[in-house]
Amino acid sequence: MLHVITSTLDDLCSLIKDDPVRPEIPLAARIHDWAEIFVLVDQGQPLAVTCVRYTDSVPRSVADLSHTLQPTVAVFYTIWSYHPGSGRQLIRAAQLYQRQHRPSITRWVTLSPKTDMARLFHHRNGAVTLQENTETVNYEYSIS
Question: Among 87, 133, 91, 141, which Cα is nearest to 114's?
Answer without folding.
Answer: 133
